[in-house]
Amino acid sequence: MKVMIRRSDKGLSAYVPKKDLEEPIVFVERETLWGGEVKLKNGWVLVLPEMPDDTRLPITVNAKKLGSED
């Protein structure tokens, strides 16, 4: 699914245009963000693609949602 990752004063967040959903990222598996899992405040777990550590935000990526499909 397409997900836009961005950073604000409040931290990282993810926006899913297809669901018109924006949620804060509350857990990051890897310090560099890319190639690992992130957990959103609503409980969704997304697997982000491998990207260079210095990838600039905001960026839209194809992420995989783990668990049940909504």
CATH superfamily: NifT/FixU-like
Contiguous low-pLDDT stretches (5 residues minimum) are none
The count of strands amounts to 7
CATH topology: OB fold (Dihydrolipoamide Acetyltransferase, E2P)
Number of helices: 0
What can be said about the biggest beta sheet?
A: 7 strands, antiparallel
Describe the structure.
The chain is mainly beta and 70 residues long. The chain has one domain: NifT/FixU-like (OB fold (Dihydrolipoamide Acetyltransferase, E2P)), CATH 2.40.50. The protein contains no helices and seven strands. It has strands at 2-8, 11-16, 21-28, 37-40, 45-47, 59-62, 64-66. Strand 2 and strand 3 form a beta hairpin. The N and C termini lie close together (12 Å). The model has no long low-confidence stretch (mean pLDDT 94). This is Nitrogen fixation protein NifT. InterPro entries: NifT, NifT/FixU_barrel-like_dom_sf. One of its GO terms (biological process) is nitrogen fixation.
Summarize the structure in short.
This is Nitrogen fixation protein NifT. With 70 residues, this protein is mostly beta strands.
Write out key terms for the chains shown.
globular; 0% helix; OB fold (Dihydrolipoamide Acetyltransferase, E2P); 70 residues; NifT/FixU_barrel-like_dom_sf; NifT; Nitrogen fixation protein NifT; 7-stranded antiparallel beta sheet; mainly beta; 7 strands
Topology summary:
Elements: E1 2-8, E2 11-16, E3 21-28, E4 37-40, E5 45-47, E6 59-62, E7 64-66
